[in-house]
Design goal:
The chain is an alpha/beta fold. It has helices at about 45-65, 70-75, 85-105, 125-130, 190-200, 220-235, 250-260, 275-285; strands at about 15-20, 20-25, 30-35, 40, 115, 135-140, 160, 175-180, 200-210, 215, 250, 265-270, 295-300. The chain has 8 helices and 13 strands. An 11-stranded mixed β-sheet has the order 1-2-3-4-7-6-5-8-9-13-12, sandwiched between helices. It has a two-stranded parallel ribbon with strand order 10-11.
Length: about 300
């Protein structure tokens, strides 16, 4: 199994392998180990900082019925049965995945080095590893149902790394593709997070943002976030809602970030099944805001 070159996520210096399952930073002397097959690069302080959000995230996913237990369910993603309560959402994610294959991976070498950020259950890493790519799945959440622990369901192995994507534990310039898998809208600072991801790219590599909610106007994004907060409190009974990031992205802000990084962006929308599109059109009038756009944002 291919392994990336690690670096200390806290100070950025090289780490030395002190045993097959342990690294030590050459500068700050922090140690990082592999437990239960997963590399643990999430510091105690970062874990504590993220804990309120991860607890809320698990609760929301539980109430939405998004924490499956069947190994076969994971292995088939992004395909799900037509009667799945989230079938329309997965149809969109499957469409975005096909955009990734056709617009990014098809233009590169047969075996690419891919960093999957916000990998969740690792479904994207699993699919790309099946195709022969060298993939690393990174997420802050490690549980067995909706985090990196779900990688145990896949027959093919790939490195799993528990870390904060605001503090990547890798040496620079070693990935052909860095993909934010439905995750960049959770970043506290999207510009800084994308800049760090840009450092991970080898020459000619691509940055990709998949299926984060995108808007033309900030006002519509803020309205969507407000709708979600009301739903979490009234329907799910949650209090003290945690917002680690804006909760959405705008095309203008992404274009500005891309220019600053010397990259040229392109967006390929995922339109979803007809019923999903109809509901979104109706929502424009019911919610009095533009619906979010989903798809593949790619910058080279």
């Amino acid at each position: 199994m291919w392994q990336p070159t690690f670096a200390c996520p806290e100070c950025g210096e090289a780490v030395n392998e002190t045993s097959p399952d342990r690294y030590r930073c050459a500068l700050c002397t922090r140690e990082y180990a592999r437990h239960a097959g997963m590399w643990r690069f999430l510091s105690a302080s970062r874990s504590a900082q993220l804990e309120p959000f991860t607890r809320q995230y698990r609760a929301v996913r539980e109430r939405e019925g998004r924490r499956p237990s069947s190994p076969e369910y994971y292995r088939r993603l992004p395909r799900v049965p037509s009667d799945d309560p989230h079938a329309a959402d997965w149809r969109v994610r499957g469409e975005t995945y096909r955009h990734l294959l056709g617009h990014v991976l098809a233009a590169g070498p047969a075996s690419m080095r891919v960093l999957d950020l916000g990998a969740g259950s690792g479904w994207l890493s699993h699919r790309l590893a099946e195709l022969g790519h060298h993939v690393v799945a990174l997420d802050a959440i490690d549980d067995d149902a909706d985090g990196l622990g779900a990688a145990r369901h896949y027959a093919i192995e790939f490195p799993t790394v528990q870390a904060d994507f605001a503090a990547l534990p890798f040496a620079a310039a070693q990935f052909d593709l860095v993909a934010f898998n439905g995750s960049l809208h959770y970043a506290a600072d999207a510009a800084a997070t994308l800049a760090q991801a840009r450092r991970m790219l080898a020459p000619g590599g691509a940055l990709v943002v998949m299926d984060s909610p995108m808007f033309q106007a900030d006002a519509d994004g803020c309205a969507m976030v407000g709708d979600n907060v009301r739903r979490f409190t009234t329907e799910y009974g949650l209090t003290d809602i945690v917002q680690p990031g804006a909760g959405y992205l705008t095309f203008a802000s992404l274009a500005s970030i891309a220019r600053g990084l010397g990259l040229r962006p392109r967006f390929i929308p995922s339109r979803g099944p007809i019923r999903w599109r109809v509901r979104r059109s109706l929502a424009r009038f019911q919610l009095r805001r533009a619906p979010a756009a989903f798809g593949l944002w790619v910058a080279r």
